[in-house]
Fold this sequence. Notes:
- Chain A is α/β, with parallel strands linked by helices.
- Chain A has helices at residues 17-22, 27-33, 37-47, 59-64, 89-96, 98-112, 126-141, 172-179, 208-227, 259-266, 300-305, 324-338, 344-361, 369-380, 387-413; strands at 75-80, 116-121, 157-162, 203-207, 236-243, 249-254, 276-280, 289-290, 314-319.
- Chain A has 3 domains: 17-225, NADH-ubiquinone oxidoreductase 51kDa subunit (Rossmann fold, 3-Layer(aba) Sandwich); 236-319, Ubiquitin-like (UB roll); 324-413, NADH-ubiquinone oxidoreductase 51kDa subunit, iron-sulphur binding domain (de novo design (two linked rop proteins)), CATH 1.20.1440.230.
- Chain A has a 5-stranded mixed β-sheet, sandwiched between helices.
- In chain A, a hairpin with an 8-residue loop joins strand 7 (276-280) and strand 8 (289-290).
- Chain B folds into 5 domains: 2-75, Ubiquitin-like (UB roll) (Roll), CATH 3.10.20.740; 100-107 and 123-268, Alpha-Beta Plaits, CATH 3.30.70.20; 279-350 and 530-634 and 645-688, 3-Layer(aba) Sandwich (Rossmann fold), CATH 3.40.50; 354-523, Dimethylsulfoxide Reductase, domain 2 (3-Layer(aba) Sandwich); 737-837, Barwin-like endoglucanases.
- Chain B is built from 26 helices and 33 strands.
- The N and C termini of chain B lie far apart (69 Å).
Amino acid sequence: MEKALLKNYGNAETHKIDVYIAGGGYVALASAMKMQSDQIIQLVKDSGLRGRGGAGFPTGLKWSFIPKDPTIPKFLCCNADEGEPGTFKDRGIIDFDPHLLIEGMIIASFAFGASKSYIYIRGEFAFGAKRLETAIKEAYQKGFLGKNILGSGFAHDMYVHRGFGAYICGEETALLESIEGWRAQPRKKPPFPALSGLYGKPTVINNVETLSCIPAIISRGAKWFSSIGPEKSPGPKIFGVSGHVKKPGLYELPMGTTIRELIFDHCGGMSSDRPLKAVIPGGVSAPMLNANDLDTKLDFDSLASKGSMLGSGAVIVMDSSTCMVKTAYIINRFFSHESCGKCTPCRDGTPWLTKVLKRLEHGEGRIGDVELLERLCSNIFGRTFCPLGDGAVMALRGFIKNFREEFQYHVDNKKCKAA
Amino acid sequence: MVTVKINGKEITVADNTLILEAARDAGCEVPTFCYQADLMGLGSCRMCLVEIEGQKKLQPSCITPVLHGMSILTDSSTVTAARAGVLEFLLANHAMDCPVCDKAGECELQDMVYKYGPAKGAHAETKFKFHEKDYVLSPVIIKNSNRCVQCTKCVRVCREVVGVGVLGSVGRGDHQEETSFLKGLLDCDQDGNCIEVCPVGCFMRLPYRYKARQWDLKSADTVCPYCATGCRMVIEERDGVVVRARAQHGVGVNSETLCSRGRFGFDFIGNAERLTTPLVRKDGVLVPSTWEEAVAVIKENLSAFEGSRIGGVASPRLTNEELYLFQKLFREVLGSPNVDSSARWDSSGVEAFIKAAGMNEGGVSVFDCMDSDAVFIIGSQVSEENPVTDYIIRRISSGRRMNLVIASPRAMKLDSSAQTVVRHNPATEGALLKAIILTLNENKLSVSAGINAIKETKLTDCVASSGVSLEVIKRIADGLKNAESISILVGTEFLRFPEGIDGLDLLKDVCRKSLGKKLRILPLLDRCNQRGAWEMGVHPGFGTGYRAIAGRGMGTHAMLEAATRRGLDAMYVAGVDIASMYPDAGHAREALSALKFLVVQDMFLTDTTRLADVVLPSSAFAEKDGAFTNQEGRVQTIARLKNPPGKAKRDGDIIRAIGQSFERSFGPDNASLVFDEIRREAEMYKEVSLVFNNKRNIDNKLDNKEALVKASSALARGFSAWNGGAPSSEETGDYPFTLMTGNHLFHSGALSSNSASLSGLLRAAVVEISNEDADEMGVKSGSLVRVKGMTHESDMKVIVRRGSKKGVAFIAENFADTPVNRFFSRGRSGARVSITRLG
């Protein structure tokens, strides 16, 4: 398959606008500018593109919620706060192909009439932020940004906003709060950002990878896009593979590639002789799968039917040497550390889980701890303000469901089974 | 309207009603920590989760509006399980130190755990602690974050209602702490509203710490004795000592808010310096005496003088009943028309003010004022003089589109809520208003008499003297022109400088008669019963209910003037410290010393009582029954909580005792009978309802219109307009600053300096100047400067206020160590001073 998203990955020159243009860049923008904005939205709807940030919401549909009234200012925010452990796909685009993102953002903004757009980039991505800032400057110089873009009369400004170092900043409404200068905590929904988002104005928030798909959809058409992968969630997808595989890294593959294909065909198999024990298919909040589920297709619906989710497409592979209690503890510690503090179940529930898991890991488990974990999970799940708490619980539930006996072993024997 | 089913019961509520409110309407209790109707909705505590049929997840009822046909369950097993789960989480890191917590007994967390909590908690891990010991945030606030439930009501009330934003959330997750940077409240109003909204013992009153348990307290419903906003509050005592004042959500104009004076300033009541026994001057020294002797001395001396040679000044902090008796004593028993209620303001200025502000037209609700399209605040430092009025304005103006204009020489907190902020020269309110009228009149309005009077006045002159640009004046005029309804909130600067009043009177006529606007005028006053004092007739120009009287008496100014000319023999001063409040200290002292006989009734030894022949110990608001009339004209009762200390008596009883020594039948005998007489005497008070109290119920609304005084038709003749003439022009060379005075946020008159808490917030006088002047002089907040006027000089610290008018200095009027009235002298409008840096 010809790559659409990672075609310039690893190339030392493609972040420069001239090199990008020479490779066929900004052609899609020029052709989009000749289309009606409704046509673009329809095209994206037809392509079947679903948001790559994790929730998989149809992108075209999201854009179509934006009010058509031209007197209301509208905003586009690109969520580049890539913070979920295991995920590093957006960085690949930002570092090597910033213009792909910028082009996609200009087309998106043109489609629903956003006058300004913000790239909310994770604070730690200093290199990427500089790349983007330089790229935006170049785009202004070439007339792709600013007033009267390519003679169409459409005006657009783009800004890079560096994040403040919290996982919660990646939650779309917390991201908006953060851009506005407030403490990053999620907002209540409704109203949804499409009606009242940044500064109370209609706002679309899209992931980097989602927006980077747009130029290809414009230039190659909706049919091309929807023909890749399964019908319900088509298109190319970047998988960021880490863990016990021979060749970890970013892989652009069609949606619906199976885990087995990904690990053994593309990543060169397991890194040692030890057998595969578990796979987290979509970042740490996605419930894990075990060795029996290797033929599961990596797309939104197939994983959902397995009780897991595609999330950001960050595949974490673990072999038999991995202690599941320790892994669960480390992952849960991340969530409790990153809980924003707004709602009670997440704020006070996730640290409690962490304390129990820590005891288990350190051989201080008590009888009834596994049941306690399950009870706490059910007290958190579905009762939190935003999906952060749910994510923590889903991950932990995945561990307990698949490896309950290992947890129990820790309780009974005060030591690890895997080691 | 939408119809929903709550626990099977159908109820019809307005569109967009929150599920929680609808459930409460239906009589179903929904517990919550973070919800408060007038604060921004948060939905964070998750106590209010309810089940909506057809929805998989429980929904937070405090941020979810009802939809037609919704079927909601507030106590299904899922809901109760969720509540128990939330409480278990809240208790996980909670300090659980109820036995030493001030909040125990009235703690929402305790109550909820008792009612909805899990039978047994499973948390057996080490608790996270923010700190080992409680820390002091400010002289009045102490904090224990380990008890916090993270409802962030404190942060929201600080930002949305008080408007300072001192508090914020620091840290993340279970380390999130609601506090301020550096754990010190740097620019705090010290109002303790964070304490009031705190559902647990996280924010606590420092003065109340370990003083009592909630169940030991005896309480009384009362009204704050400081400014005239008329905040309802509950004061509580233990063993005869008032230990706490608090407000209640949904009760009174103030709802749950109070300012620092209201919340912490009650401790003057228990001050050890209170006078407890009558004092009579013998051989030049005041010696303790008995009431019988003191009253006999008073009777003997007063009988010796002709009525018209006796004067009386009563404090606008006495109750209506006491003030009524006071003027009755003078007019009917002593035969003197000389009564007044202020040492600070000229009585003819007061008369003009009452007329211009239309106070005889009945009460005006502040909430109705805030319903107007345009609100114009002029002549008032509302954020400091009437802090709770400031909260009300901020709260309402943030929620609706309105044109808020603030005109004041000094910057204030409320400026941030205003569309237009005007910085005019001090004492030029009249010029500013005339400039606005002349701008409005450009298109030749149908002429009302007043406009003829100023048709000779040149717009350019007015603009020049007010020091405001024509562009800003035009903007204000346009704002008034485009509004259908206008409210003007006028403050005490008009009373200090009455030459501005005719401008106000004229603007009222222009707006109402020529432009046909719906206009309301609300006076903003700084003493709790100032309006009541006037309406009771404690004024030389009119009687009870603004009724015309036969002969005009002398006001305070005239009395002091007469005393120096030996035209007045005796004075009876009830609760006013004339020597330190009259705007010419030297003259006041001279006049009081020249009297043949001076009776002073006060709670404390003041500069005035030191000059007295007889000193009578009186009572605080917590020690008596009665009613105050606030600035809006709302009549609200106060209730007795304790007895006065020692032999001190209630002011009403003292006045009655003096009256009865002359006439046995002087009365009536108690406060409620006096009020009945007031109802008969003053038409305005005839139908006023006093039933409003501090009970939270549906009828007990914030805006209780039944308590407003009605219009008075008793006004037999037009009030005299101000004819004091223009202020004399001043040399400005040596004295570049114009000195303003008024109330400080933490202080109000002499009363507050007897409060240990308030004195702890600000002990010594400070002079406030603009940042421009400070930069020029090279001083910062805290630098020591010398303030020099023509008659007095004093050294004090400087406070820099960003955005104030250049060339304006402000010193509050209450400090005993730096009586600001020493800078003033009679016959000059305002005072000019120079400020030089020391060291």
